[in-house]
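SEQUENCE-TO-STRUCTURE ENTRY
===========================

Subject: a protein chain together with a token-level encoding of how that chain folds.

Sequence line: the amino acid chain in single-letter code, read from start to end.

Question of interest: how does this chain fold, as expressed in backbone structure tokens?
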Amino acid sequence: MTHILRMKCEDQAGIVSGLGQVLDRFGCNIGQSFQFLQPASIREDDVAEIFFLRLEFTCTEQTDWSELEQELEALRSCFDADLSVRESGRAVPTILMVSKFDHCLIDILYRVQTGKLPLDIVAVVSNHAHSRADVERLGIPYYLWPVTKENKQEQEQKLEELIERSGAELVVLARYMQILSDEFSSRHFGKIINIHHSFLPAFKGAMPYKRAWERGVKHIGATAHYVTPNLDEGPIIEQDTERVSHSDSASDLVRLGGDVEARVLSKALRLHIEGRVFINGNRTIVFKG
């Protein structure tokens, strides 16, 4: 069994050697490993260099996990580190949220069904019935919760209860066109991922591709990011673009944009699931394999 170890702390002597010695004593073999040292000067309020580490390791059948966990806990305390270990490849319990445009939803469902994305889809939530048949034929619960100004708080409370009841560890806004409250976004920071066209801030709001076509843009794209109370300004996980030209119609841009959105979201989900993304303020450190 392969495990993923993530560590974040102020840089100091002995981190890598100490961790390596612990894993070696328990017969563990280190595989893929990534490190990054963020200079203190990257922000004016930084007072120390920050060290980020992600590594994969395997153990033998003789490894005493209880003792290993105690040793890792001692390292965590010694370096005052944010340190976690989890099994690689574990399907993460996830709630998908969608409105009318379901290209990202369908793409995720296909990748999950074909074993290309390790998610356990515990529910799909929507304010429209458009995708219900496609979801329920896979045996996935579909919750139709229309949102109005009058019931927005009530529907969000239902979502909170669903997260608790289902054990969901991730919420994916797969083109869900409703704004979550500041309280909800803050409470689940780092566990909600959104996909957005990369026209921000020039083309915020409705009909972005039509307005992009009217402006004659030469690239369209998409951005996957963590949700924060600041609308569409959360830490970015993944981005990509597609070249377009004067010969492309507004409909072409919608079609091409949908392809980019689905591609970027699936990449972001895999990076998150594999523990390759570290949130650091409003930025991310992303260790791509």
